[in-house]
From TrEMBL:
Position of the signal peptide: none
Pfam families given in the database record: ParA (PF10609)
GO biological process entries: iron-sulfur cluster assembly
Record keyword Iron present: yes
Family: Belongs to the Mrp/NBP35 ATP-binding proteins family.
The protein's name: Iron-sulfur cluster carrier protein
Annotated function: Binds and transfers iron-sulfur (Fe-S) clusters to target apoproteins. Can hydrolyze ATP.
Organism: Caproiciproducens galactitolivorans
Length: 262
């Protein structure tokens, strides 16, 4: 006799001391499209608006969140669970890089170990009075992101794409994963859409014309914003000053995330 498997059965309970209002997953089809930048800046923008934001860095093999915020200290444990590290402006962060002695050591773990680590960031970390917890998901739609999807109760997801990619396929896969878990897709952020000429202000589509509008329409999704390649932003994120960075084009995406109700 077969029993229908309900994906929701896999969802894990958070640490009993955690209090989280909304959990937002940020996904992408592959690495390097700016998923961590979008995660960091959405947390920064919503924090600037007076929300308490937090980031669960589930991108275990490429954890770039601590670097974007210049976090040097290690996460500490307590009797009741692991404590996230606070950034200068009070954003709570948990990442493998805050636990490893040597953060340059490559994480060469197998999928189940990675997935389990992320699960523990949900079940063991004390997330205190968080309005928006952003989950920087492992890239792609393989085993690891799927397990993460199944173990953390997401209230919505943001898809990050770039014009170089096969956006249609990535969006189709993300839509399938989201449907399976009954999680709404908040919308698509297109990153690296163009570069603005510093002399004449003209937008140059470095990676070719964007197809994100057609694809979003096909799936009935919203395009939240199109972000330019911004050298100033890259510099700030790469030296640990994400909190000082400006990302005006992401404000529209932040508006939608802030108002999102599952
Ligand atoms: P992912 O998380 O998808 O692997 P990252 O967010 O780490 O990608 O971005 C990869 C690199 O590109 C980083 O050095 C980041 O600072 C840079 N980057 C991302 N988005 C932009 C942008 N809009 N303008 C300039 N640099 C960017």
């Amino acid at each position: 006799p077969s029993r229908k498997v309900n994906p929701a059965d896999f969802i894990e309970k958070p640490n009993p001391m955690s209090k989280i209002h909304k959990v937002i997953g940020v996904v992408s089809g592959k690495g390097g499209v700016g998923k961590s930048m979008v995660t960091s800046m959405l947390a920064v923008l919503l924090n600037r608006r007076g929300n308490h934001t937090a980031i669960l860095d589930a991108d275990v093999t490429g954890p770039s969140i601590p670097k974007a915020f210049g976090l040097k200290q290690k996460a500490m444990g307590s009797e009741f669970g692991l404590l996230p590290v606070k950034t200068n402006t009070g954003i709570d962060v948990m990442s493998v890089n805050l636990l490893l002695e040597d953060e340059t050591a490559p994480v060469v773990w197998r999928g189940p170990v990675i997935a389990n680590t992320v699960k523990q960031f949900w079940t063991d970390v004390i997330w205190t009075d968080v309005d928006y917890l952003f989950v920087d998901m492992p890239p792609g739609t393989g085993d690891v992101p799927l397990t993460v999807f199944q173990s953390i109760p997401l209230d919505g997801i943001v898809i990050v794409t770039s014009p170089q990619e096969l956006v249609s396929m990535i969006v189709a896969k993300a839509v399938n994963m989201a449907k399976m878990m009954n999680v709404p897709i908040i919308g698509i952020v297109e990153n690296m859409s163009y570069v603005k000429c510093p002399d004449c202000g003209k937008a140059i589509p470095v990676f070719g014309e964007s197809h994100v509008d057609e694809i979003a329409a096909k799936f009935g999704l919203k395009v939240l914003c199109k972000c330019p390649i911004d050298p100033e932003l890259a510099k700030n994120c790469d030296v640990g000053l994400a909190e000082l960075a400006n990302a005006p084009w992401l404000e529209a995406a932040a508006d939608v995330v802030e108002k999102h109700n599952k």
